Amino acid sequence: MPYTFTLTKTIPATAQEIYEAWLDSLSHSEMTGGTAKMSDQIGDEVSAWDDYISGRNLELVPGERIVQTWRTSEFGDEDEDSIITVTLEETDEGTLLTLEHSNVPDEQRSYEEGGWQENYFEPMVAYFTERAREPAAPEMPEAEAPQPTAKAPKRAAKSTPKRARKAKRAAAKSKRAAPRAKVSVKRKAKTRRAGAASKMRARRKPAARKPARGKRR
């Protein structure tokens, strides 16, 4: 005939930490030492200790209570699923975990007589004790925070497109060349005027007269 038993254990962690670890696959596996597949959704199937335990979430109250069906590979086909109710109550020393295991086959007394203590309670105490010893991630002092440097404007200037820089150089070169071009044009115009004046003077100069032949004095 199925029976019910109750066990208690104080765990060095908050109620919320235990609740979350129990329903998380990775944390449950690390906490117990056996592979687990857990969920924090009501109705989802769960398993623990390398599929030795299987069940389903019946009731979940964050930080307070977990109710699951619980069936091991030792249950016979005629045995109904057992039910575990995990109640969490915070104390000065951590959290008092109260486990009620009901509808357990009468011939399977090992769960009450050391099974839960050896495979859950003791590993859970070691797990959360070790977690409490882990150092927190160091925070970066404000003085070490990256500061802007004076070279920032230079880096920004390097990001200017090459075409824009070429255009600026071309414009500057054009301005320098402009005065020279004007001087060259003036010189050519002066040269042309001088040539034209020379031709005009040549046309206006009277031709030299030849002396008459045959006349003597």
How would the blueprint of this fold be written?
Layout: E1 3-11, H1 15-22, H2 25-32, E2 45-48, E3 53-61, E4 65-72, E5 82-91, E6 94-104, H3 111-133, H4 152-158, H5 162-204
Antiparallel strand pairs: 1-6, 2-3, 3-4, 4-5, 5-6
Q: How would you describe this protein?
A:
This protein has a domain at 3-133: 2-Layer Sandwich (Alpha-D-Glucose-1,6-Bisphosphate, Chain A, domain 4). The protein is built from five helices and six strands, in the order βααβββββααα. The protein has helices at 15-22, 25-32, 111-133, 152-158, 162-204; strands at 3-11, 45-48, 53-61, 65-72, 82-91, 94-104. The protein has a six-stranded antiparallel sheet with strand order 1-6-5-4-3-2.
Helix content: 40-55%
Number of strands: 6
Task: Determine the oligomeric state from the structure.
Answer: single chain
**CATH class call of the domain at 3-133:** Alpha Beta
Major sheet size, sense and barrel closure: 6 strands, antiparallel
CATH superfamily of the domain at 3-133: START domain
Strand residues, percent? 15-25%
Helix segment tally: 5
Can you tell me the overall shape?
Answer: elongated
Q: Using the CA coordinates, give the radius of gyration.
A: 51 Å
Q: Give the N-terminus to C-terminus distance in angstroms.
A: 183 Å
Task: For the largest sheet, list the strands in their spatial order.
Answer: 1-6-5-4-3-2
The CATH topology annotation of the domain at 3-133 reads as Alpha-D-Glucose-1,6-Bisphosphate, Chain A, domain 4
Structural class of the secondary structure composition?
alpha+beta
